[in-house]
Write a structure and sequence with these properties.
The protein folds into 2 domains: about 100 residues, 2-Layer Sandwich (Dihydrodipicolinate Reductase, domain 2), CATH 3.30.360; about 130 residues, no CATH class. The chain has 8 helices and 10 strands. The two termini are about 15 Å apart. The structure holds iron/sulfur cluster (SF4).
Length: about 280
């Protein structure tokens, strides 16, 4: 059994969150650049130019690309032949987020109790999801996810009779209802199937794919393409000021479900898409 000191996990998380807030990935930059080239609306093109300039400034001056440094989401794929020594896994990740947001001077945006609403002052607790896999490694994916876009996410239990068309209508309507609030151009994560909780889980997980990478199943890829086309025909455009680029990509994940169910979750991600994966 391989052993990993919990301090390694803490340091990985700390560094990861400091880095992603000012270093947008090459996949996001390429998608924004492509959207700018294809944008018909002058104001939309101008906004996309500003977003690319904002990303450059973040990279070169090491300043966060958005004032909302987000919910700290951590997905971990944990090999069953690895053992954490020292602190518990949860405490190590929590400490990493706390140290990252404190040392990186990142805005603390989390309240400890949703009704009393007192800020925890270090962006903890993180929202941690784990899956057990084979091997002796831990794959850690970190996302700083803004709440402007999270707030525009939706879930619905469709009836199986509503089928594929019902899914398309719900996803497109969710984007339409959000308007400019989730800071388009968006990455639209869609989870179809599973249960109430599984659908939302896979919708969020889909956002960890490189921007615009399609699902391997041809019929799901076809759905992603149709949804992107329909969403970009809405005319909302960058920041909701009109134009073609309402979304940069649609990522769909599916899961088996009960014969009586067709759950659909839409997790909306904004243009400040901050994700990084590290394997230890
Ligand atoms: S939704 Fe995204 S871009 Fe808009 S304020 Fe929040 S983090 Fe920033």
């Amino acid at each position: 059994m391989r052993q990993i000191d919990s301090q390694v996990l803490t340091e990985t998380v700390e560094k990861g969150f400091i880095e992603i807030t000012h270093l947008p990935g090459g996949d996001l930059i390429a998608a924004l650049d492509k959207a700018r080239q294809e944008e018909d609306s002058p104001i939309g093109k101008d906004i996309l130019t500003q977003l690319l300039e904002n990303a450059r400034l973040g990279r070169e001056e090491q300043t966060p690309i958005c004032q909302d440094t987000g919910n700290s989401i951590v997905f971990m794929e944990i090999g069953q032949d690895v053992h954490i020594v020292g602190e518990t896994l949860s405490d190590a990740v929590r400490r990493g987020v706390s140290q990252g947001y404190t040392k990186g001077y990142l805005r603390a945006s989390i309240v400890g109790d949703p009704l009393e609403r007192k800020n925890t002052r270090d962006n903890t607790p993180p929202f941690v999801h784990t899956e057990i896999t084979s091997g002796d490694r831990i794959k850690i994916t970190m996302m700083a996810k803004g709440s402007g876009c999270e707030n525009m996410s939706r879930f619905k239990m469709l009836t199986p009779a509503q089928g594929r068309q019902g899914v398309v209508d719900f996803v497109v309507d969710t984007v339409l209802q959000g308007g400019g609030k989730p800071c388009p151009p968006l990455i639209v994560g869609v989870g179809i199937g599973g249960t109430f909780d599984m659908a939302t889980y896979i919708a969020k997980k889909s956002l960890f794919r490189p921007v615009g990478e399609h699902h391997p199943e041809p019929h799901v890829k076809e759905l992603e393409e149709e949804l992107l086309e329909k969403i970009n025909n809405l005319g909302l455009g960058p920041q909701g000021w009109g134009g073609r680029a309402t979304a940069l990509a649609v990522h769909v994940e599916t899961y088996p479900c009960h014969i009586a169910s067709l759950p659909v979750a839409v997790n909306i991600e904004c243009h400040s898409h901050r994700v990084k994966t590290v394997t230890i």
